[in-house]
């Protein structure tokens, strides 16, 4: 399996596992919490068949990547992405982030610019700013995130089970758009992630991306489900078009957080249409 080295902790290198498939314009897919690059399964096959080069990688702490004790913040995540982009010498790439992965896309473009990037996609995004503050009343109270961290420390496997119920809206979509087997597969991947990385990712969700967003100078597609229980539409995606100059918002009716899996039949055509320039 191919790896790129992004750092060092004591005697061990910090390596990110990636997959680089197909030929054509490069598409970099950046997964959400607490999964890995294989969570893009329903998009990888479609993109390869459409003639794109498809690159996925596992965020530090997750999947087949190293599980260091530090670096679970968006400056580091963006730096990791930059190492990958540089190692593979990507140009005219499309960055596609899902959920937590939208933070990498946003911070990367805000910090490193678009020299290597032609377009961007933010799917079920974290930006602009999740934390409720005096100048961000649309945000979420900090106590919610404190509760998540407490639940992870007390019983991480149980937390993951509850998380995926709302990740997929299993009470509504279970047995129809999401199977028990697919939920179990996601749980297995999440359970194998770094316990410390899983915990440390929670504060990163409170990153303020409002200064990064105006720096995004490439066409940007925003996709979000209107039944998202993890990152509600009104708090996140609905606020982005006013901050990203050349952007378009597509709302998936009845879509939960994991729209790239449950509603791939709607997400993929919108994605391909955007990639083709329509």
TrEMBL record:
<keyword id="KW-0560">Oxidoreductase</keyword>
<dbReference type="InterPro" id="IPR029058">
    <property type="entry name" value="AB_hydrolase_fold"/>
</dbReference>
<comment type="similarity">
    <text>Belongs to the AB hydrolase superfamily. Bacterial non-heme haloperoxidase / perhydrolase family.</text>
</comment>
<dbReference type="InterPro" id="IPR000073">
    <property type="entry name" value="AB_hydrolase_1"/>
</dbReference>
<protein>
    <submittedName>
        <fullName>Alpha/beta hydrolase fold protein</fullName>
        <ecNumber>1.11.1.10</ecNumber>
    </submittedName>
</protein>
<dbReference type="Pfam" id="PF00561">
    <property type="entry name" value="Abhydrolase_1"/>
</dbReference>
<keyword id="KW-0378">Hydrolase</keyword>
<dbReference type="GO" id="GO:0016691">
    <property type="term" value="F:chloride peroxidase activity"/>
</dbReference>
<dbReference type="InterPro" id="IPR000639">
    <property type="entry name" value="Epox_hydrolase-like"/>
</dbReference>
<dbReference type="GO" id="GO:0016787">
    <property type="term" value="F:hydrolase activity"/>
</dbReference>
<keyword id="KW-0575">Peroxidase</keyword>
<dbReference type="InterPro" id="IPR050471">
    <property type="entry name" value="AB_hydrolase"/>
</dbReference>
<feature type="domain" description="AB hydrolase-1">
    <location>
        <begin position="26"/>
        <end position="264"/>
    </location>
</feature>
């Amino acid at each position: 399996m191919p790896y790129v080295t992004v750092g060092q902790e004591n005697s061990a290198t910090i390596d990110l596992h990636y997959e680089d498939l197909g030929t054509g314009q490069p598409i970099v897919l950046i997964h959400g919490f607490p999964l890995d690059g294989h969570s893009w399964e329903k998009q990888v096959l479609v993109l390869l068949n459409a003639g794109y080069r498809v690159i996925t990688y596992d965020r530090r702490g997750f999947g087949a990547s190293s599980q260091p004790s530090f670096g679970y913040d968006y400056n580091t995540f963006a730096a990791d992405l930059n190492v990958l982009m540089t190692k593979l010498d990507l140009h005219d790439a499309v960055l596609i982030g899902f959920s937590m992965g939208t933070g990498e896309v946003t911070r990367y473009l805000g910090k490193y610019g678009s020299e290597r990037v032609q377009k961007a996609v933010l799917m079920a995004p974290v930006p602009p700013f999740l934390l409720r503050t005096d100048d961000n009343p649309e945000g979420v109270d900090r106590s919610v995130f404190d509760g998540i961290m407490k639940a992870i420390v007390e019983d991480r496997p149980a937390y993951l089970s509850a998380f995926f119920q709302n990740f997929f809206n299993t009470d509504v979509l279970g047995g129809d758009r999401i199977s028990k087997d697919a939920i179990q597969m996601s749980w297995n991947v999440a359970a194998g992630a770094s316990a410390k990385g899983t915990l440390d990712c929670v504060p990163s969700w409170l990153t303020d991306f409002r200064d990064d967003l105006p720096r995004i100078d490439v066409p940007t597609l925003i996709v979000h489900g209107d039944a998202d229980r993890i990152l509600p539409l009104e708090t996140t995606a609905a606020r982005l078009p006013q901050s990203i100059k050349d952007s378009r918002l597509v709302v998936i009716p009845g879509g939960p957080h994991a729209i790239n899996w449950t509603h791939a039949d709607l997400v993929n055509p919108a994605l391909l249409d955007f990639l083709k320039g329509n």
